[in-house]
Amino acid sequence: MKTTSKYPASPSKREFNDLCSNERPLIPPLYCELPFKSPAAVFEAVKGRAAVLLESIKGPDKIARYSFITFNPFLEMIVKDQLVEVVKDERRSVSSVRPLTRLREILNAYPQRKAPHLPPFQGGAIGLLSYDFVHYIERLPKTVIDLLNIPDAHFYIVDQLFAFDHKEHRAYAIVCPGARSIELGYTSLSDAPLLKDDLKTLYDEAEERLHRMVALYSGCSSEMACTIPDKKKRIVIEHEMKQSQYMEMVRRAKEYIHAGDIFQANLSQRLSAHIGNTPVWQLYRILRSINPSPFSFFADFGDYQLVSSSPERLIKLSDRIAQTRPIAGTRPRGISREFDERMRADLLLNEKERAEHIMLIDLERNDLGKVCDYGTVEVDELMITEDYSHVIHIVSNVQGSLTEGRDAMSLIRAVFPGGTITGVPKVRCMEIIDELEPVARGPYTGSFGYVSFSGDMDLNIIIRTMVIKNSVSYVQAGAGIVADSDPEREYFESLRKAEALLSTLERI
Questions:
Q1: Considering the entire predicted model, what is its pTM?
Q2: Which one of 273, 276, 341, 415 is CB 3.0 to 4.6 Å from 367, fit for a cystine?
């Protein structure tokens, strides 16, 4: 069955054959353009285990342009306790290989020709790097209790998705022809010559799947209601740390700062709430209305789910240009333009905020410098303010050209986890976090996003995020501690950063 003439598949079969023959072994995606709809409304039709929504709801066009929906992955990669498990159907492969090496092998097995006019993710890996994934990158102590027992990394490998361009108001169904032939051994399609019959089979199978996606999309609503329920306050929020304990943690961090060990550290606390049989998707629907953000996402991994309204990018790689976008410095938004202007001025004139931000810019420049060509790392946006739904942030953008022989995995090793949520210097701060925080962070301050078959990547920082497991929602938030930090103020600052999440829980 072919896609309807109303939404024809591109490229045509002849164009597909020519592209594959002329650019062997690269294989272009098959796609069709569709009427633009709300990504969240479309996700209503596919949500369930292994479904993921990356949604740019609100923010500057530069970072909030694209959204993606993936479902029905053909491989799953789970990393925990130094073991890498890859699952296809009912078959499993377990090894102790380095996880980024294994992920590179899987993605390199499919030689994708990126379509430059489509949104940047056209198939590949989508998923999670927990904060604790740092133990695969750096030699660090690991002494705290892991209460959540979430994988250190968890990726779906996908070859079909819906992609949305909010700036151009366009939507696409995309399929990667032949990707599902990648087996657990990662036999590369580029190892075998593709004959005309092979190309015909690849095209016909992809077109059939594209047709089913079009039918699914056509049955979806165009918009999703964004009404925010009133607060019911039936949920009991449990603080896993007393105020006095957090304040003591801040005092101990300040001792390290005064001793010259570190300049700044991010210290967090965890809260939790039993949500009973409340559908997890309902939490996301409320949160996206309360706190629309550029790096929001919903992910269902079966025995746990993630609900996020993150405002911050960790790293983007596009056509070998790497960008990181640190956020440091926050003020609340008000009900008037004049109030917001005062807050922006207060942010930019505050010496503490500026000094902290400059330290983090230097850290990010150093991280990119590990894998980028000498002389290419630059700060192309310095300490601008960006308005979000509830707050104003100071933001900078640092970019560089990736060195020949380096790739997305090299970049992850260089920048993960983000300096804005660890501190400066990063490694010593992570040692102190392990010493002072009572439990393992799990997904909090890790990263979520995609790494494409073509080599592009976009990962956020997991903040403003709930982890739901066994009918309990876990919320974590922190504050940046510097030499003159007031422990009580930092305690309430960490709670303020959890306000949107706690407000969501109060409305179920």
A1: 0.94
A2: 415
